Amino acid sequence: MQNAKILLVDDDRRLRTLVERYLTKQGFVVTAVGDGEAMTKLLARDPIDLIVLDWMLPNEDGLSICQRLSADKNSPPIIMLTGNSEAEARVAGLEGGADDYLTKPFEPRELVARIHNVLRRCPRIAAAIPVANSVPMQFGPYRLDYVQRCLYRDGVHIALTGNEFALLNVLAQHVGTPLSRERLAYLINGRDHDYDNRALDVQVSRLRRLLEDNPARPCYLQTVRTLGYMLTQPEPIQ
Q1: I need a surface site. Which of 57, 146, 191, 209 has the fewest CB within 10 A?
Q2: Residue 7 C-beta-side C-alpha neighbours within 13 Å
Q3: What is the mean pLDDT of residues 31-47?
């Protein structure tokens, strides 16, 4: 199956170019347009797997477009982009039919992680998530291989369950950034998750037992008081 087709809709030409280049390097097939009219014409002739849609667009705004598209059950999933970080705006976007929501400015890696998460919830296109350009991440003696979905320590394979890989994958995508329990659950499972503090803490404890020489004094998977959990990278990516 060919890699997932992403449609980027944003009237900021510079941002369109940067994001299109980055997503293309990640293995996606990307088309970028500047407004809803161009988007509608393209959707009429080309199948698209996911839309990255800016809120502030000329003529028809992104929220209106999202509401219109979500009325069609065959429309592709949507990730909304917006410069408004207020909770009310996020809620409005999700209630308008968006599958996820990202506030500008954003890290391109986070956009890729969110695209992966949304696509994984769509069985029809989950196999289209590109892996060829997912370079393994090195932290300490560990190497996280995104293609094989497994972990190595000094070249020795460490078996991970699906939940353990999902948790480590999200932490690795946000290395050096504390993530709250709720944020972790959301990034792992999407907006329809059942948030459970205790269940997530248990997953963290299990992952620590795999990663840490002394889980009581973690070096890599750290607790950041009042903020959440964070994966640290004491050594640079090789």
Answers
A1: 209
A2: 24
A3: 91
